[in-house]
Amino acid sequence: MANLSRRRRDDGLSSLFIVVVFSATVLVLLSSSVECSQNYRDALAKSILFFQGQRSGKIPAGQQQVSWRSNSGLSDGSLARVDLTGGYYDAGDNVKFNFPMAFTTTMLSWSTIEYGKKMGRVELQNARAAIRWSTDYLLKCATATPGRLYVGVGDPNDDHRCWERPEDMDTLRAVYFVSPNNPGSDVAGETAAALAAASIVFRAADPRYSRVLLNTARKVMQFAIQYRGAYSDSLGHDVCPFYCSYSGYKDELLWGAAWLFKATNDAYYLNFIRSLGANDAADIFSWDNKYAGARVLLSRRSLLNKDMNFDPFRQQAEDFICKILPNSPYSSTQYTPGGLMFKMSQSNLQYVTAITFLLTTYSKYMAASRHTFTCGGLFVNSNTLKTLSKRQVDYILGDNPLKMSYMVGYGPNFPRRIHHRGSSIPSKSIHPQSYGCQGAFQQFFYTPNPNPNLLVGAVVGGPNQNDLFPDDRTDYGHSEPATYINAALVGPLAYFAGSTTKPVDLTDDIIT
């Protein structure tokens, strides 16, 4: 039975890992060729397709390739007399947690902003569709009731006692919100970031929608700033231990303001960022801890616009990178013998994909500005980061000791027993009757048989620190996919898909 706390421990706990960087691992990482070894374009298409399998709400006719999924959650919001249909289920469960969903949306948007030209026309359209499926829902959450920001649907405790398809779920679809009396600066800041980032994605493609997104982002960010507090404190066991705000809310205030500044160029947000004094060190990036992401985003102004006002963020971004590089004297990051970045024992790939996104993006900025820096005595250029990023992506796609792709449907050998309700239970077209809350456990959860439905593109939690992976449905810490794992991988996949046929000069990819 899944308990979401398995992959949602305090990001700060990564510093408790004993840093073990074997010289052999360093050689594996540094000897990785930057030549093409995987079909990144195929992996990119599948990584975006995955989001269709996570859809909640009414599935539009003719717009769903994942045919074993159908309508679900059509009464979401009714307990509060509002329409909260749509959005995504976060992982293998049937709950809509807005905190990680908004982060997923921000990362999909950032991937599209940075690498949209490398995606190609079809995948750019698919990426926009994946973003819009989420932002349509987030807009409802932000505007349905004045003074409220809805932040989730579905009782997580009831949901995790059941193993049933989302189409059949009969558990309580409780509705959760934050308000001036029960603030949630973290989830509000992340929601503002998602809407602001998406507004950039749609600026040219749908100007009206872009304006709606940006105007709503401004209002939600103002709520986050004016009413300070962690949503974990307001909602307690309804979001903890599932998606507690372990890192606090200052990082989301920084992150949300950084995205609004990028979307508006309004000095108000830059002044707010300066007033925050957010100098916390970071050696991780995730749905919970946004410090490193905000600093990489802000550092673009320093590197590409030569604006010295942003030099402190560039320095903080490089301090973060020095904690990641395996041969840096300041590294606090462990690597497996096969060369995979290892931050946490459960759902480790969420950290790998998120950090890899930052490495590829900073590498791009460095290449465009011909920038280099040092970590102590270690010289770092754009290719240093690109090589490490490629090693992580290739490992996920099958270049690892087990020769296993951790993306479902990619390559000949991939996980067949993922921890995912809809994937593990026959679809309604095969078995129209509901199995009920408990009925599918024995037959479909505990069975060693492969899942009947392929959730193509899903990236699971990944192997352990010894490069081992059991492919066991009951081992949720390694076998469960999540939207935020995939969202962060979309950018690096597009980066390498486009880089195989074009020079390393990346300025033409910067579309804003």
Automatic annotation (TrEMBL):
SUPFAM superfamilies in UniProt: Six-hairpin glycosidases
According to the lineage, what is the superkingdom? Eukaryota
| PROSITE patterns, alphabetized | GH9_2, GH9_3
Glycoside hydrolase family domain location = 40-492
Q: Which UniProt keywords apply?
A: Carbohydrate metabolism, Cellulose degradation, Glycosidase, Hydrolase, Membrane, Polysaccharide degradation, Transmembrane, Transmembrane helix
Q: Which residues form the active site?
A: 419, 471, 480
Primary enzyme class: hydrolase
A GO biological process of this protein is: cellulose catabolic process
Which InterPro entries did the record assign? 6-hairpin_glycosidase_sf, 6hp_glycosidase-like_sf, Glyco_hydro_9, Glyco_hydro_9_Asp/Glu_AS, Glyco_hydro_9_His_AS
| GO-annotated molecular function | cellulase activity
Q: Which residues cross the membrane?
A: 12-31
Q: What is its EC number?
A: 3.2.1.4
Enzymatic reactions: Endohydrolysis of (1->4)-beta-D-glucosidic linkages in cellulose, lichenin and cereal beta-D-glucans
Signal peptide extent = none
Is Hydrolase tagged as a keyword? Answer: yes
Check the record and name the Gene3D superfamilies matching this protein.
1.50.10.10
The keyword Protease belongs to this UniProt entry's keyword annotation: no
- Which family does the record claim for this protein? Belongs to the glycosyl hydrolase 9 (cellulase E) family.
- What name goes with this protein? Endoglucanase
Organism annotation: Oldenlandia corymbosa var. corymbosa
